[in-house]
Write a structure and sequence with these properties.
- By secondary structure, the chain is α+β, with helices and mostly antiparallel strands.
- 33% of the residues lie in helices and 26% in strands.
- It contains five helices and five strands; from the N terminus they run αββαααβββα.
- The relative contact order is 0.15.
């Protein structure tokens, strides 16, 4: 038996597929998170960590797990509320909910940092006790909308 596989499955094709899936998740151009009902982040890819750092990820007290709702409370308190109000066992909870980052960090955002994030949250039938969350950089859309509104004045 191969000690690298806990499941007892020694299929090298399955192990390769798992490795490819992990590479895909780590290289995805969007943040991918799995959070529990209370907002505690269970899993997160590197892009998710980069984007959520703009909201204060990494400033938790030692030993405290990061919480998506705590991170979004200052700039988008509705995220916590909308998730808590969603009562179905599965479905789209949030669809590219826009979070503007101008109030995210009193010290200001680093040059070139995103100015807006989109948050999509899904409850999957296979795991109704957690959320799959996609965090994306929506800055180009916000900039385009601002330019359009200036032209329409």
């Amino acid at each position: 038996m191969n000690p690298q596989h806990d499941s007892g499955n020694d299929d090298p094709g399955l192990a390769r597929e798992l490795d490819l899936m992990m590479q895909f998740l780590h290289l995805a151009p969007v943040g991918l998170l799995r959070v529990d009902r209370s907002g505690t982040i269970i899993l997160m890819n590197p892009t998710g960590a980069q984007l959520l750092a703009l909201l204060g990820l990494g400033r938790e007290a030692p030993g405290q797990l990061p919480n998506l709702f705590d991170l979004t409370d200052r700039v988008a308190p509705d995220v916590r509320t909308l998730v808590s109000l969603f009562s179905d066992d599965s479905g789209v909870v949030l669809d590219k909910y826009r979070v503007l980052l101008d109030k995210a960090d009193p010290g200001g955002l680093p040059p070139g940092a995103p100015i807006a994030l989109g948050i999509t949250a899904l409850k999957l039938p296979a795991d109704p006790d957690s959320l799959m969350v996609v965090v994306s950089d929506e800055s180009s859309t916000v900039r385009l909308q601002r330019l359009q509104s200036q032209w329409l004045r």
